[in-house]
Amino acid sequence: MRILVQKFGGTSVAKRETREQAIEHIMDARREGYSVVVVVSAMGRKGDPYATDSLLSIIDEKDRTNRRELDLLMSCGELISAVAFAAQLRGHGVEATVLNGPQAGIVTNEDYSRAQIVTIQPKRILQELEKDRVVIVTGFQGGAPNHEITTLGRGGSDTSATALGVALDAEIVDIFTDVEGIMTADPRIVDNATRLQTVTYTEICNLAYQGAKVIHPRAVEIAMQKNIPIRVRSTMSKDEGTLVTSSHESDRIEDYLGDRMVTGITQTANVTQIKVFAEPGQHLPMQRNVFRAMAEHGISVDLINVNSRGVAYTVTDRDTPEALRVLRGLGYEPEIASGCAKIAIVGAGIAGVPGVMALIVDAIVSEDIEILQSADSHTTIWVLVRGTDMVKAIRALHNKFQLHQR
Ligand code: ADP
Ligand code: MG
Q1: Which of 196, 128, 210, 190 is nearest to 164 (CA)?
Q2: What are the residues facing 346 on neighbouring strands?
Q3: What residue stretches are annotated with the Aspartate/glutamate/uridylate kinase domain (predicted)?
Q4: How far is it, in rounded angstroms, from Cα 245 to Cα 198?
């Protein structure tokens, strides 16, 4: 059996018309001889009646204490979506079976709202496929061994799709969404962002971990373990999208030669820069006190810079009040800049290439934008800018690296 997993995101299943386009893709795959397993997200985005956030809003925020029941509630969105999808598919004369997470054999641990898939027992799915049916699995959910329903957290449907791809030894996992593929930057920010024809698992993982929300990094890591290719494609068109594999399978010679210095640019908004300065001679205990206190209060720190005058680091805006409370409790008066954005310039070709930082600084400074802090790894350079400068800085960088010509 040649199995294809096709995952349709929120906007792809939101309306009858978009579901119709999704169904086209399923029928195409069947015509090509594939047995198709479909994974669906809940319908629409925040504000839409059956979207996960809308279901959650039935319960007042202060009453959202029972995590087990919240997972029961949140798992309804995908179920509604799957049943609507199956009904519409039958209208085209295609037999379909809807399975929720536990029915599909997706076994998770019991960590509600962020459960991890432990194993998948695909027997039932395979039985249905044998009967020439399309199996429609609710994304974002599974079941713990004690019959509890669990949800998988952010990007959970992507994870359901690739985990099923691995369990079923699928030929490909298709991630259908509302953009034409993985782009050199978020198309909502950069008009002339271009589609990447092929990327490696590592490249897209880096982009996704740095904020590009087109696919969840956990989903990519799962596919990578068994080398299952992923295609990120648009529901609205028949274009090929972006192929994600372990190596570039491109006919473009420059991709083979690896001279793709920068793959793409992505960002994380709503972060706060915190700087703590030390009294003369006190910088060693201060450094230790600050990071120990952040750790003890479960505040995750990023872009860390430690020097003899003090320390600088970032936290999410959400964690800022708590971080300030803790630091003041220790007797420090930190300097803060909230509402900042961390821009990541990602590319496997960045390592060791002279002049990359010069290009970055040049692009940003030419726009009169101040770089508040920076950091680098072998695949990524980060710059921290004020939130109000974010869009301008990203566009300037996109131009500087000529990513519109990809
Ligand atoms: P879905 O509901 O289909 O899972 P998501 O909203 O999770 O869709 O992901 C698709 C969105 O990701 C796009 O609409 C786009 O705005 C955003 N995005 C951010 N960075 C990128 C990028 N580099 N390439 C493509 N899309 C991106
Ligand atoms: Mg998504």
Answers
A1: 128
A2: 264, 380
A3: 3-234
A4: 8
Strands across the sheet containing 264-277: 302-307, 310-316, 264-277, 335-346, 380-386, 373-376
Q: Note the ligand closest to the C-alpha atom of 232.
A: 1
- Tell me, in angstroms, the distance from the centre of ligand 1 to residue 210's CA: 13
Alpha carbons 124 and 121: distance in angstroms, whole number: 8
**Cβ atoms 264, 232 nearer than 8 A:** no
Ligand located closest to 77 CA: 1
Which homologous superfamily is 3-245 in?
Acetylglutamate kinase-like (3.40.1160.10)
**Is there a contact between 242 and 229 (Cβ–Cβ < 8 Å)?**
no
Pocket of ligand 1 from Cβ distances under 6 Å: 9-12, 41, 177-179, 182-183, 185-188, 212-214, 264, 266
Domain ranges of the chain: 3-245, 264-401
| 47-92 pLDDT tens trace | 999 999 999 999 999 999 999 999 999 999 999 999 999 999 999 9
- Same topology, domains 3-245 and 264-401? Answer is no
CATH superfamily of 264-401: VC0802-like (3.30.2130.10)
